[in-house]
Specification:
The protein contains 7 helices and 6 strands. The protein has about 180 residues and is of the alpha/beta class. The chain has a single domain, classed as Flavodoxin domain (Rossmann fold, 3-Layer(aba) Sandwich), CATH 3.40.50.360. Strands 1, 2, 3, 4, 5 and 6 form a 6-stranded parallel sheet that branches. The longest helix is centred in the C-terminal third of the chain and has 15 residues. It is globular. The termini are close together. Bound molecules: flavin mononucleotide. The site of flavin mononucleotide has 14 residues, from loops.
C-alpha cells in the first residue's frame, strides 16, 4: 500500500500542530487504499542545517541526516501541517525540508495551515518552497482558522468543520497514488 506522511511542522511546547495532525490522521486513515503516518519534527530533532555538501548530492555526513533521508524515502506523498509564524512558516519545517532534495522530488504534497486567518500567508510562502523542491502541490490544501487562545475543545469543534475537506484530500491521495 502507498504511504503518506503527515508532518507536524512546529515543535514548541503546547503546540497546536500536533492536535491538528492528530485530527487529520483520524480523517485520512478512513482510506483503505493509502496508509497515513504522523512524523513529528520534534522527535526527528534535526540540528540547524549542518551538512557540508548541498543536499542535491545525496551525500550526507551525519547519521541523523541519513536517518531522516531513509524515513522520508519510505513515503509516496506528504501533508505538511504547520502554523503561520509572522506571515511565514516555522523555521524548523523549512530546515527539515532543506536537509533533503531528491527524497521530496516528484512527490505530491498538501499544505494544511492554521492561524488567526487560516495561515494564508504561511501557505503562500510554502508554495514557493515546495515548487523549488520540485514537489507536486495537491489541489486540496486546507486553511484552518484557529485563535491562539482557543481551548482544545473549541479547536476540536472548529477542526471538525473541515472534515469534508479532509475527505476531499483523502480522495485526492487515493486518485494520485493508486
Ligand atoms: C512566533 C509566532 C508567530 C506568530 N505569527 C502569527 C501570524 O503571523 N499570524 C497568525 O495568524 N498567527 C500567528 N501566530 C499565532 C499562531 O498561529 C498560533 O499561536 C498557533 O497555535 C501556533 O502554532 P503552534 O501552536 O503549533 O506553534 C504566531 C505564533 C507564534 C508562536
Amino acid at each position: 500500500m502507498k504511504k503518506v506522511a503527515i508532518i507536524v511542522g512546529s515543535v514548541r511546547p503546547n503546540r497546536r500542530s500536533s492536535q491538528v495532525a492528530a485530527w487529520l490522521k483520524v480523517q485520512l486513515q478512513q482510506s483503505n487504499r493509502v496508509e497515513f503516518d504522523v512524523i513529528d519534527l520534534k522527535r526527528v530533532d534535526l540540528p540547524m542545517m549542518d551538512e557540508p555538501k548541498i543536499p542535491f548530492t545525496g551525500l550526507y555526513n551525519h547519521a541523523k541526516t541519513r536517518a531522516w533521508s531513509n524515513l522520508v524515502s519510505q513515503y509516496d506523498g506528504f501533508v505538511l501541517v504547520f502554523p503561520q509564524y509572522n506571515w511565514g512558516y516555522p523555521a524548523v519545517l523549512k530546515n527539515a525540508l532543506d536537509y533533503l532534495a531528491r527524497e521530496w522530488q516528484g512527490k505530491p504534497v498538501s499544505l494544511v495551515t492554521f492561524g488567526g486567518h487560516g495561515g494564508t500567508q504561511a501557505q503562500v510562502a510554502m508554495r514557493l518552497v515546495v515548487a523549488g523542491l520540485k514537489m507536486i502541490q495537491m489541489t486540496v490544501n486546507l486553511q484552518i482558522s484557529l485563535m491562539p487562545g482557543d481551548s482544545i475543545a473549541t479547536a476540536d469543534r472548529l477542526l471538525h468543520t473541515h472534515d469534508w475537506e479532509a475527505d476531499l484530500l483523502r480522495q485526492e491521495f487515493e486518485r494520485r497514488l493508486s
